[in-house]
Fold this protein.
Amino acid sequence: MNTVDNGANRDADLIHDWNTVQDFQPLRKGVEFDDESLRDGLQSPSVVDPPIEKKFEILRLMDEIGIHTANIGLPGAGPRAVEDVTRLCRLIDEEKLSVTANCAGRTHPNDITAIARIQQETGVPIEACTFIGSSPIRQYTEGWTLEQMLELTIEASKLCEREGLQQMYVTEDTTRATPETLRALYSAAIEHGARRICVCDTCGHSTPLGVRNLIRFIKELVAESGEDVKVDWHGHRDRGLDIANSIAAIEAGADRIHGTALGIGERCGNTSLDLLLVNLKLLGAIDQDLTALPRYVRAVSEACEVPIPVNYPVFGTDAFETATGVHAAAVIKAFRKNDSWLANRVYSGVPADVFGLEQKISIGPMSGRSNVIYWLEHRSIEPTEARVDAIFDRAKASDRLLTDAEIESVLQGVPS
């Protein structure tokens, strides 16, 4: 089907966008992404840690969709983690992937030296993501003093520097930590060599307003240091605010956003990276080709044995399928105009074709005759009155959508 060229202003002519009126400021471009699917994502109690061949496939797809950095494991967790991280680093090197590697580790010498050994063995640069809790509730539970936390922070930063590791210093539960504690911890890490710091909503506590307040505070702290330090945002979705919070972090100046495919991760999961990319594409903040996103989502779903809900936005089986008569009729009219741009937007806030997908017209009890005619024509079957009537009557008597096999069975009983 041919796409009709209707000019650059077509969006504005046919869609009034209340998202961009009054004080709307376009999101700045250049934000980066850190994919945690192969590390934080595997902390979900429901996922399977995939075999290395599946991890290879996922890492290649991360590279294809334009992910900048992948957290490929926590080597301090044990021998299998070390082996998988090593092999993933070798894949990056051998296949000349653009995606770079980082690894998680506690602010503990054992975790840091485990990362350093892999970097030395493979020759592949690895960013060390050294983490420590920062909130009062965590300090009280663990029995930590700020002095102890500062000592661990400084020693970890010094060790990263001695081992030749780039360091991202991570404070867990940042969104529930005090300004005084955050200032002390981040300042110490920056003073001793950290050139990237990560703000974490570990418990999914934050709201978009809280994210903006916190990121602005951290950006001011970085500016006061006089060093060139990047700021990351790592959010969880316990309150279902992961996408909104990540967009708020970008608005407030975060340089890199973390997430996982399908939002997999501990408890309710991490920021859903695939849906964040969809939204940023639609907001004009990123421009990479995302037609491989469905393959990326399916690969993680299959490898980790996490089913995709049928109503999951964009990538669920119901996302672009309709059998409702009025809705389907509008889509069909757009198809009949040979206008894929129109067909992908007339009843959808997400244009399916931009993400390598397509609209699907089905037949069920809420369908009109146009659904039936379209289904037949789409399969090069003449939509005779007898065929249309037989399928239409069967659909109206059903309590759900008809399968293709059921429709074909009806056709077998209709004289040619």
Q: What stands out?
A: Residues 89 and 124 are 6 Å apart (CA to CA). Residues 28-304 form a domain with the TIM Barrel fold (CATH 3.20.20.70). The longest strand covers residues 126-133.
